[in-house]
Amino acid sequence: MIGVHNGMASGSVPGAEWVKASACDALNSCVEVARVGENEIAMQNSRFPDGPALVFTRDEIVAFFGGVLNGDFDSMTV
Q1: Mean pLDDT value across the chain
Q2: What are phi and psi of 10, to 5 degrees?
Q3: Which long-range contacts (CB under 8 A, 24 or more apart) does 24-30 make?
Q4: Distance (Å) of CA 14 to CA 4, 9, 51, 60
Q5: In this model, does residue 1 exceed pLDDT 50?
Q6: Could you tell me what percent of the chain has a pLDDT over 90?
Q7: Is the N end or the C end of the chain the one with fewer CB atoms within 10 Å?
Q8: What is the CA radius of gyration of the chain?
Q9: How far apart are the first and last CA of the chain?
Q10: Contact 4, 43 (CB under 8 A)
């Protein structure tokens, strides 16, 4: 999508419909995602909805979730 880039304000991502996981805690601490265009996903921190968005391609998201499912990041959980 033209005009969507890393670091732009989450509220400025055109057409973003942010989706939050049902497993978020009571303080709204979670990551929200929105499809932007055909091949990109934006992410924002729900605690800072006016903060920056990070934009990833579909392939980057697939690789990340593959790593999550494989346990690659298990040592990073608290």
Answers
A1: 88
A2: -55, -40
A3: none
A4: 7, 10, 15, 21
A5: no
A6: 50
A7: C
A8: 13
A9: 35
A10: no
